[in-house]
Amino acid sequence: MKKKSTRTDTHYLKVIMEKIEPFLNYEIYGANTRFTINEKHNEKCYFIKSGAVSLYRYPDGVLLEIFDAPTLRGYIPLIKDSETEYVIKLLLASEVAIVSKEALFNLLSTQNLWEEFARYQMALISSVSEVIYRLSTPNSYESIRHQLIELMAKPSEIRELITAENYIRCKTRMSRSSIMRILSDLKTGGYITIERGILRGVHNLPLKY
Asked: φ and ψ at 68, to 5 degrees?
C-alpha cells in the first residue's frame, strides 16, 4: 500500500485563525528567528500565518518536523521539571502572532471555537501518532523511505532549504554514511531525483531495500 504524507489537516485551524485574527497582532519576523520553549518560558504560543518553521527538541537536537503555514506552536504544556527544550526556528520570513496561552483560551471561549480547536487536535494527534510509528521503525531503509515521502510532500520552497540527507539525519539520528549509501542506490535505481542534495522527485519507492 502506498504511504501518504502525515501532514496535519489544517482546515479547523484556518477557521480559528480567521475568526480571531482581529484580536491578534501579526508581525513579520526574518528567517532564522528563534523562539525557545522550556519549563521557565512556556507561557506563549505562536500563530504562524505565512512562511515556514522547523521545530527542534533539545538536548538531543532532534528535528521533530518542518511545518509550513498555517500552523500553531507552543500551546501544549511541558511536564513539570522537564529538562526538554524546544526551539522554533523560522526557515522563511514569516507572519507570526505571539499570544499568551490564557489569551488564546479566552478567545476560544468568547468566540465559541472550542469545538473547532478540539477537531484540530484530533487531526493533529492522528498525524503525530503516525509520525511516531514511522520514526520508531527498526529498519533503516524504512525510516529513510518514510522521511523521503514526508520531505517530498512539502512545498518546493521548503525543500530548497534543506538537503535530503540533512533532513533525514536530523529526524532519525542515523549516520550520514548510511543515509548517503541508501540515497545513492535509490538515485541510481531511478527511484528518486536529487540535484545538489535537494530532493526533486520520488518515483515508486520500493518497499524493501
From this structure: -95, 155
Q: Which residues contact 43 (CB under 8 A, 6 or more apart)?
A: 100, 101
Q: pTM for the full model?
A: 0.85
Q: Which three cell numbers stand for residue 186?
A: 535509490
Cis amide prior to 77 (ω within 30 degrees): no
Cell numbers standing for residue 81: 521539571
Q: What is the pLDDT along the chain (209 residues), one digit of tens a residue?
A: 344 555 678 999 999 999 999 999 999 999 999 999 988 888 899 999 999 999 999 988 889 889 999 999 998 878 877 888 999 999 999 999 999 999 999 999 999 999 999 999 998 888 777 767 666 666 889 999 999 999 999 999 999 999 999 999 999 889 999 999 999 999 999 999 999 999 999 998 998 88
- Report the candidate in 107, 110, 120, 114 with the shortest Cα–Cα distance to residue 8: 120
Are 124 and 8 a contacting pair, CB within 8 Å?
A: yes
Q: CB within 8 A of 159, min separation 6: which ones? A: 151, 152, 198, 199, 200
Domains in the chain, please, with CATH?
A: 10-128 (2.60.120.10), 137-202 (1.10.10)
Q: Distance between CA 140 and CA 70 in Å, rounded?
A: 31
The cell 541508501 sits on which residue? 182
